């Protein structure tokens, strides 16, 4: 088990530091995106009857929905590989070809070849999608060379990621349950399953390097004022029979209960569809989003399994050993939603949301026109958003109101996601050489 001592100081929460760091990352990311683009002006909007990037974004989403892995980081990996290949394939337009025909064929072929390799059961549907795209492109050297470039880049990226430890078996390698003790994670009701996703921390990242590069400092000490406040909030607001949680808060908890990848697929699509620029930069937006999310999940598992902080349900039911002798245990306390089978600190949902927020803010700006969002765990509910930051803020609250995370675990998660995403953006050029 890795040492629980922090590798880096806990991130500052000062707004001036965050603002300076955000501006620096924005400048670096903009420079990286510019470096990806081919020389020359992008195609005029009037020329584009079909947005091939969005067309193949939707094809990727359908493929993941129909044949995706059981582990979220594996599915983010599929997205990342496919769209790194796409960004590389359209990076340079060779002389003597029609730019749009070449780039459309290259992008579609790169994503198609990657997905066929990673989700072979969807080959027939993917072949049909590729046929539809290529049917719109005039036959000739531009199309042929684009197809060849897409296939070549797919092969290269796939080979570079072989054996990276992000397959479901490696991600969910068995984790031995630690001996019980104050503050130590234990399996949680109702299933009391062993810890999952511990293998993420041993996977090979895209850009992070060491899994512990941004390991969080320790969570609040048992019995400290912060710890007691966290526990009291979850106990009151996260209980299945809470008398203080409002209907709107319950809806928020339920809305953000589903898998983060599922919930963030539409916001990223909105960003892509509304983005302007050359095809390489637009493909890089999708690639960098998912690269950051793979690396964030690696960093999240590192901190979770380094600190092994127990979940609120365990703490509340065992409050006589939480360091505060005045706290009364509640052995029958039950959270609104079932607790996932891994430690509390940090929250995986909020690290994901923090990374997503930072990538979208850096590459397309902090706000967009209003867009609707639905959730598979809240049928019939539609929410409207204009700022990526709001998605992260709601994730923080949602995990507390679900009764499955402390607020400290949630806010620390957003900070960790920010830091990994900033590292991804600073090093983006390494992906597209």
TrEMBL record:
It comes from Thermomonospora umbrina. It comes from the Bacteria. InterPro entries: PAP2/HPO (IPR000326), PAP2/HPO_sf (IPR036938), V-haloperoxidase (IPR052559). Gene3D superfamilies: 1.10.606.20. Residues 175-188 have a biased composition (Pro residues). Residues 291-423 form the Phosphatidic acid phosphatase type 2/haloperoxidase domain. This is PAP2 superfamily protein. Residues 161-188, 320-344 are annotated as: Disordered.
């Amino acid at each position: 088990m890795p040492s629980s001592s922090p590798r880096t100081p806990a991130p500052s929460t000062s707004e001036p530091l965050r603002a300076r760091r955000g501006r620096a990352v924005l400048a670096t990311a903009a420079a990286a995106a510019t470096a990806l683009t081919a020389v020359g002006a992008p195609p005029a909007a009037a020329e584009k009857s079909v947005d091939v990037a969005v067309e193949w974004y939707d094809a990727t989403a359908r493929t993941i929905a129909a044949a995706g892995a059981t582990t979220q980081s594996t599915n983010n990996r599929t997205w990342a590989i496919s769209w790194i290949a796409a960004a590389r394939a359209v990076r340079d337009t060779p002389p003597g070809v029609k730019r749009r025909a070449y780039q459309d064929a290259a992008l579609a072929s790169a994503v198609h070849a990657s997905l066929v390799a990673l989700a072979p059961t969807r080959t027939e549907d993917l072949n049909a999608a590729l046929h539809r795209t290529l049917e719109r492109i005039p036959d000739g050297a531009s199309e042929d060379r684009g197809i060849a470039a897409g296939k070549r880049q797919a092969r290269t990226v796939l080979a570079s990621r072989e054996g990276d430890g992000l397959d479901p078996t490696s991600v969910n390698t068995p984790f031995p349950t630690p001996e019980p003790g104050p503050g130590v994670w234990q399996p949680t009701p109702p299933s009391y399953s062993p810890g999952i996703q511990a293998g993420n921390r041993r996977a090979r990242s895209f850009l992070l390097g060491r899994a512990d590069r941004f390991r969080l400092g320790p969570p609040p000490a048992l019995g400290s004022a912060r710890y007691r406040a966290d526990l009291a909030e979850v106990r009151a607001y996260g209980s299945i029979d809470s008398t203080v949680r409002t209907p709107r808060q319950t809806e928020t908890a339920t809305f953000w209960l589903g898998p983060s990848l599922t919930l963030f697929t539409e916001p990223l699509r909105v960003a892509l569809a509304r983005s302007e620029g050359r095809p390489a930069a637009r493909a890089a937006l999708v690639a960098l989003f998912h690269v950051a999310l793979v690396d964030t999940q690696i960093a999240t598992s590192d901190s979770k399994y380094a600190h092994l902080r127990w979940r609120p349900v365990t703490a509340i039911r065992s409050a006589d050993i939480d360091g505060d002798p005045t706290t009364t245990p509640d052995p029958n306390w039950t959270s609104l939603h079932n607790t996932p089978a891994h430690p509390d600190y940090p929250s995986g949902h909020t690290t994901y949301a923090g990374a997503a927020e930072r990538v979208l803010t850096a590459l397309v700006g902090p706000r967009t026109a209003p867009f609707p969002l639905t959730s598979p765990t809240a049928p019939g509910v539609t929410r409207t958003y204009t700022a990526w930051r709001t998605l992260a803020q709601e994730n923080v609250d949602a995990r507390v109101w679900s009764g499955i995370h402390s607020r400290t675990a949630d806010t620390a998660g957003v900070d960790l996601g920010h830091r990994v995403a900033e590292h991804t953006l600073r090093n983006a050029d390494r992906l597209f050489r």
